[in-house]
Amino acid sequence: MTELVKNPLIMRKVQEEIRNVVGYKGEIVSQDLPKLEYFKALIKETFRLHPANPLLVVRETLQKTNIQGYDIPQKTLMFVNVWAIARDPEYWKDPEIFMPERFLGSSIKFKGQDFELLPFGAGKKMCPGMHLGVANYELALASLLYSFDWELPVGMKREDMDTDTLPGSPSLETYTNSRPQNHVYFANLAKTYGPILRLQFGSLPIVVVQSAKLAKEVLQTQDLNFCSRPPLVGIQKLSYNGLDIAFAPNGDYYIKIEKIGVIHLHSSKRVESIYTPRSFKED
Question: Under a CB-based contact definition with an 8 Å cutoff, are residues 142 and 28 in contact?
Fold first, then answer.
């Protein structure tokens, strides 16, 4: 919404599309959403520029491995800088500009198969609530744009609005008390030292990867070696001692709750099934 307020021409374009499709029904229903091509492109562009967790949730190596010639010790903390990848000029033209048009006619999706766009991660530890979150987000945003016109407060300029991405939780800052925008700092380091960084915070060995090629290596090719979570204090406090689906370490317990959460509760078919009762009004 902030990007739309800063870019009124884009806002008017997406509002026109929504209002033409929905007409005078007075509300948006789930069946309207697949018809909104520009709106869908806007969603992707928002995920590209403003991922909720720019370094994704930390992973841990189960055994010693090698990535692009670099040896990675066992129990190394692994971060994927999806913020940097989504702003890499190798993959994106004018990457700093908010431009939904880049996704019109594009086959790129955000569901873990295209590694230049990974707001929800990929592989076994991909965000389990992606389908549910996106469904609610799309319906809420489309409804706000359909029903209201939005603009900056009187006297405020677009340059006054801060759209810098802050880290999600738990992030690298949770474990190291380091700078609040490590994803930006690491992206700048990559310009000098390359897209893979080896760091040491006290006793914690950390690796940060910052290219689509390396992300694919970590999240797909060697996914089984990078699909666990470290038993760190921050994660334990947030996840009932590692018992929830997002932060549980890899093993028999995780396999069981993954099946329950991803297949039975949060699958795309399950999420679609809740739209019908939500679309009815009480008499």
Answer: yes
Q: What element of type H or E holds 46?
A: helix 37-49
| pLDDT score of 252 | 85
Long-range contacts of 180-186 (CB under 8 A, 24+ apart): 182/55, 183/54, 183/55, 183/81, 183/83, 183/84, 184/83, 186/55, 186/81, 186/84, 186/210
Those residues with Cβ within 8 angstroms of residue 267's Cβ, 6 or more apart along the chain or in another chain: 131
| pLDDT tens column, 156-210 | 887 777 777 666 555 555 555 555 588 998 999 999 999 999 988 888 899 999 9
Query: What is the C-alpha to C-alpha distance for residues 136 and 73, in angstroms, rounded to an integer?
Result: 40
Torsion angle of the four alpha carbons 50, 55, 59, 64, in this order, in degrees rounded to the nearest 10: 140
Q: Residue 71: which residues within 8 A CB-CB, separation 6 or more? A: 64, 65
Render pLDDT for 101-144 as a digit per residue (tens, 0 to 9).
999 999 999 999 999 999 999 998 898 888 888 988 999 999 99
The DSSP code for 195 is: S
Q: How many CB atoms lie within 10 A of CB 122?
A: 23
3-state secondary structure of 83: helix
How far is 175 from 157, CA to CA, in rounded Å?
Answer: 37
Bridge-based pairing of strands 204-209 and 77-80 is parallel
Q: How far apart are the first and last CA of the chain?
A: 33
Residue 199, strand partner residues: 206
Q: Which two tokens mark 250?
A: 């890899």
Cα(10)–Cα(100) distance, rounded to whole angstroms?
Answer: 8
What is d(CA 44, CA 67) in angstroms, rounded to the nearest whole number? 29
Amino acid found at 129: G
